[in-house]
Amino acid sequence: MRKQLNHDAMAAIGFIEPWSVKAGGATGGFLSCADPNASVRIVTLDRDEVVAVEWEIARHSTTLSIREYELGSWAEIPATALRSDVYELSLEILFTRNETSKPVIAIGSLLLSLEPDGRLVAVIDGQSHTVAEVRNERWYQLDVSVSPSAIGYRVRRADQQAVAVRTIPLVAADTAGLICIGGAADRSRQTLNGRLGRIRLISASHETEWRFPTRGPMGDIRPVQQGDPAIILHNAPTFAVASPRFSGEIHDPRLDPDHFDSIHLHDDDFGGFDWAADLTVHIPEDARSGVYALEIGTDRGVERLPFFVRPTEPQSNVAVLLPTATYLAYADEQLPPHRYPWHGSDRAHLFAIDNNFLSLYDTHSDLSGVSLTSSRRPRATLRDDYHYPLSNSPHLLSVDLQLLKFYARHGIAVDVLTDRDLHDEGLESLSAYSLVLTGSHPEYWSSAMMSGLDRYLAAGGSLGYLGGNGFYWVVAFDGDNMELRRGKNDIWSGRPGEMHLSMTGEPGGNWEDRGNRHPQALVGVTYVIMSFGPSRPYRRLEGSYGGEHAWLFDGVGEAFGDSGTVLGGAAGYEVDAVLRSEETPANLVRLAVADGFDDSFQVRPDLWLADGEAERAAMRRSDMTIYRHDAGGLVFSASSVAWIGALPATGKDNDVGRIMLNLVGRFTA
After folding, report:
1. How far apart are CA 474 and CA 487, in angstroms?
2. Phi, psi of 573 (to 5 degrees)
3. 20 to 30 Å CA-CA from 169: which of 92, 294, 469, 529?
């Protein structure tokens, strides 16, 4: 369904693509704006003051406009696939939750729709005809026979006798043109929630069959027969989902693709937006690496669209690896208040609700989890002034900018990279740096990102893990698209057998369950507890006072981190601790601990602990750790999403800042 953006909550919105670009390159601005005469300029975001920079902006139009976008995935069989005006369309279909009338098959002026009460209704020559009654979550074989004089429908459960047969004479109906499955050609109707399996088009002289591959998403599905037209898929439906052949015995599509040769259509799916660029930003070759924004000045205020500039050549021994996969996973999260009590507000979530944008934390209207997203989309939550309503505090980029501002304040140069750079380039993106620092919430990691980090550490590099709940979810990338499969989870649960990522075929879920790359083995700690209750300070342990790592605490008192922008302290929101595990590096040192969390902080229920409740109670803590890995580099873990938020404000000083200066000083001196 095509619609116009609602700008009630935000006057201007858009995205920069690519959002990570090297100095000397160019990037595009894709905008929707309620003020046609809005101004644009480039500003810095990673300094205490927002400063305009005089970079070239090539405008492609003199004014801005309110853009249209399309929601809902559907399939199109082009008219060129029809060899005759007499044919049969046969398809496997499963209906999920649909609360309004939805198109099932549209052929010319003929429409078969699904009504909320489960009736399949044919609308022909202005008359409605009930064809069958169907139920959700059951596979049906739907056959539609078309001729100039009549249209016939046959509906049956898979491998069963027909449940309904109906033939309707045609008087003035038009059966020419493309065939739409789950949508309408004019994009005027909300699309269908359901699943499609194998599709056949049969005439007296020819048969064409389409089967969905288990790798996706893709826009064109070639038929089994060579030379026939492809089915066109709109708006990125979900691939590698259980088909009528799924028996529950095989959960890996790579073992038997026939069990997963279906797609899931949602009425709120969307692929990357197909907008043309409004402008191009040309970045000078000598531009400083950092975080910038396209600032849009409207008659209702200012909005900023962030992007990241990498150096052409490294300018520091230290790089900050910003977690754009996590930024993208959370982008435009709806946070429906009936599920998540808001303790503050932010215009981004109101904008997402107004426009039915979904994040990887949301569910589709049929209650299946959102597993696909794209960077070619407005990212209203990606702002320097963003506040998370559940904590009423900064989150993601608005926290990570505090780290960059802190180092800039102290005259310490750091290069800015993104985890997507690591995904695309592997070790090469990191190899020039002695120390790589993460952002506050590096939660989502692809296999390529993990491999690149492994190779960096194996080459002697050092890592500062400055967040919590890190290295947790497995994702995959294909161009601008990112995919996630959650499995059983309290965010949303995937369906049985659908844990494998369609983009790569590998298992999804979390890295703990994948083997070989448990966070405990990589950074010495594992995500343990979370809450939006008050954050806590750390207190030093014996390992911080002497030995190899005492330098990290030069000038630091016994307790530190009793204030901060994220829930009031250095340890909070989501925190990690050392598990009793053979995965733990043998030389790991616990430097500090934060405990005394209120009762809203409880250990993850899926975390198995050998000593039961006694050990579970002891794990309600955050552990700051360090160890030297086999290649000689260091791995430091702050173990808290709130850690960076506890850095001192402008003109202030504190022990969290001293630790971060000591850490970087070890590699920049």
Report:
1. 11
2. 65, -85
3. 92
